[in-house]
Each structure stands twice: as structure tokens, then as C-alpha cells.
Design goal:
The radius of gyration is 24 Å and the shape is elongated. 36% of the residues lie in helices and 29% in strands. The longest helix has 16 residues, at 168-183. Mean pLDDT is 93; it is low at 313-318. By secondary structure, it is α/β, with parallel strands linked by helices. It is built from 12 helices and 14 strands. A 6-stranded mixed sheet has the order 6-7-8-3-9-10, with helices on both faces. 35% of the residues are buried. Bound molecules: adenosine-5'-diphosphate and magnesium ion.
Length: 318
């Protein structure tokens, strides 16, 4: 895996407040990295630091080898940023907006028309491209704003709460678009969100931040393994287990707990190594197994386990 972004001890103070506190983080090329945390955790500040928009108080970060504090112009050539409140010209059409920003970015003049068409197509806006943006729905505006961030073909895209305030259908369209940018175009995506369902669908790895401090980072499955030892498994038997089947399950090595929940056998195992043996024990005690499903921890469960009582947003704690 090739690192595209490396932060070392990255820190930003605002007066006495430490908004980002000694952040160590590596983001790899091609991944969707989810940056999760409650309001006020320091997500937006981190994005601004990583794009050379704010200067760190301490520490450093490089993006494709460029120092974000001293080589901001170079950094921003390779990044696209969707900010929390993206600016679009409402009286201009989508196509005119993109043309305007293409000129601002200094995109090569001769290639710009084709690039604009490609972006409009990818964002699902081609058939509405000549309407003033003021008449667009919120979801369409957000897709156009993502298109604007992408116009100069940056290898890494920062998306700050891209589905905040969208209705479920619009949010789903934006999520699908992000997946496509990652899977089909191979772009690296740094996604700030507190929508954990969306993050679960999109992210290869996540970092959880609170009060400026990174609490954990990794692939959700790896985080789950660190947080909880053992494994939950649900089994569907053709009938309620007989006494002999229960005895076989409970006597088996690696089984910590067994219970019947909604007609299914729920097991807590020490590890997945125990699964084949338990199945064999049930079968030899006369049980017939229809299905065996390991229960995965959702990102939401992982998030709240990491955040604990700190998971509440700053507003709620006041
Ligand atoms: N320009 C600023 N001046 C003073 N405080 C700021 C500024 N920007 C952010 N903060 C504070 O830094 C903390 C982190 O903010 P932010 O990075 O916006 O969090 P998030 O994006 O995770 O909601 C908050 O307490 C916020 O009030
Ligand atoms: Mg923010």
C-alpha cells in the first residue's frame, strides 16, 4: 500500500482550545478513509490543515510528499475539497459554474469542455446542465459541488459531511457517486461524516476522533477484533435443539455461551476456530443445521464502543 498522506503529530490550537491534538495518520492511495467523530471533534480543522488552508501550531503533514504547511499551492493541485457549505453561483447554470471554476483552477482551456461534460455525466446532471443552479434540489447542488471539487482530476478528494442535510434518496445518490469515484476512478477519498451507515457502506478504514484526539484507526473488522474477543454465531436448526444437542454444544471447547434467541441458537465462541468442531458435535448429536451465520459488529457498535460516554456531541455535553 502506497501512502498518499502522512500526518505526524499534527496539532492546531485556537487560543486555549486544542482543536487537533498530535494527530498521527497515514492514508493510502485508492482507499476510502472515513474520519468519524461528533460535532466539534476536529474533523473540519483536520481537512483544512491537510490542504494547507490553516497552518499547524505543531507537527507536520505531507501529501504526495509536499509539505502542507509550506507547499499549499502544490498540495491543492492534487486535492479536491468539498467543504461543509460549498459555494456555487445560483444564477449560473451547472455548466457555467464548472466553466468558471475550471478557469479559476487553471484547467487547460482546450481540454475543459470535454472535462465538464464528463463531470456532468458522472454526477448525473447532464440533462439538467443548462438550468440555473438556484432551481436545483439540495441533492443536485451537492452532486454539482462534488463535481466542482473533482473538476481538476485530483487523485485525492476530501468530502466534509457530503450527505448532511440531504433527504434519504438524495443521500443515497451521493453515496453511490462516492463509491463510483473510488471503485471506478480509483480516487483516494477522505470522508468526514457522522453518518455511520454511510461510512460502513463506503469506508475501507476509519479513524475515530474526539476532542481533537484520534481514538482508534483501522479497518472496521480489525477494530472489532481489538474491541471484542470472541465471535457471535447464529445457527438455524430444523427444530429446537434436543437436550442431547444442547449438551453437545455446551460441552464443546471454545463455546463460551449458548442460548436460544427467536428460535435460533446463538453462540458466543472464543474464535472462529471453534466453528467446524461445534457443527460436527451438533450433527453427531442428531441436530440438523440449515444455516450458520457469524454476526458482524456494525460500525455503529464499533463507534460507540470506542467513543464510550464521549460519543455525545459537544453541544449535548454542555
Ligand atoms: N477558526 C476557528 N476559531 C476558533 N475555534 C475554531 C475555529 N475552527 C474550529 N474551531 C473549534 O475547533 C473545534 C473543532 O472544530 P471542527 O474542526 O470544525 O470540528 P468538526 O468538523 O469535527 O465538527 C471546535 O471546538 C470549534 O469550535
Ligand atoms: Mg465539521
Amino acid at each position: 500500500m502506497e501512502p498518499i498522506l502522512i500526518a505526524e503529530g499534527l496539532t492546531r490550537h485556537f487560543g486555549r482550545l486544542v482543536a487537533v491534538d498530535h494527530l498521527d495518520l497515514t492514508v493510502y492511495r485508492g482507499e476510502v478513509f472515513g474520519f468519524l467523530g461528533p460535532n466539534g471533534a476536529g474533523k473540519t480543522t483536520t481537512i483544512r490543515l491537510l490542504n494547507g488552508i490553516l497552518r499547524p501550531t505543531e507537527g507536520r503533514a505531507t501529501l504526495l510528499g509536499f509539505d502542507v504547511a509550506t507547499q499549499g499551492d502544490a498540495v491543492r493541485r492534487y486535492t479536491g475539497v468539498l467543504t461543509e457549505n460549498p459555494s456555487l453561483y445560483e444564477h449560473l447554470t451547472a455548466r457555467e459554474n464548472l466553466r468558471f471554476y475550471g478557469d479559476v483552477y487553471g484547467y487547460p482551456e482546450e481540454k475543459l469542455p470535454a472535462r465538464i461534460e464528463a463531470v456532468l455525466e458522472a454526477m448525473g446532471l447532464a440533462d439538467r446542465a443548462d438550468e440555473p443552479v438556484g432551481a436545483y434540489s439540495k441533492g443536485m447542488k451537492q452532486r454539482l459541488a462534488i463535481g466542482k471539487a473533482l473538476l481538476h482530476e485530483p487523485p485525492i478528494l476530501f468530502l466534509d459531511e457530503p450527505t448532511a442535510g440531504l433527504d434519504p434518496a438524495a443521500a443515497r445518490a451521493v453515496t453511490a457517486m462516492i463509491a463510483q469515484l473510488s471503485h471506478q476512478e480509483g480516487r483516494t477519498i477522505f470522508l468526514c461524516t457522522h453518518n455511520l451507515t454511510e461510512a460502513q457502506r463506503l469506508c475501507d478504514r476509519v479513524g475515530v476522533i474526539n476532542r481533537g484526539v484520534l481514538q482508534a484507526v483501522g479497518a472496521p473488522a480489525d477494530l472489532a477484533r481489538q474491541l471484542w474477543s470472541g465471535l457471535r454465531v447464529e445457527m438455524d436448526l430444523h427444530s429446537e435443539p434436543s437436550g442431547a444437542v444442547w449438551a453437545a454444544i455446551k460441552a464443546h471447547r471454545g463455546v463460551r455461551q449458548a442460548s436460544l434467541v427467536d428460535g435460533k441458537v446463538r453462540l458466543e465462541l472464543e474464535s472462529e476456530e471453534a466453528i467446524p468442531g461445534v457443527i460436527a458435535a451438533i450433527v453427531s448429536a442428531g441436530g440438523r443445521i440449515y444455516s450458520v451465520m457469524p454476526e458482524e459488529h456494525t460500525l455503529e457498535e464499533i463507534y460507540f464502543e470506542i467513543q464510550g460516554a464521549n460519543g455525545a456531541s459537544l453541544e449535548e455535553r454542555k
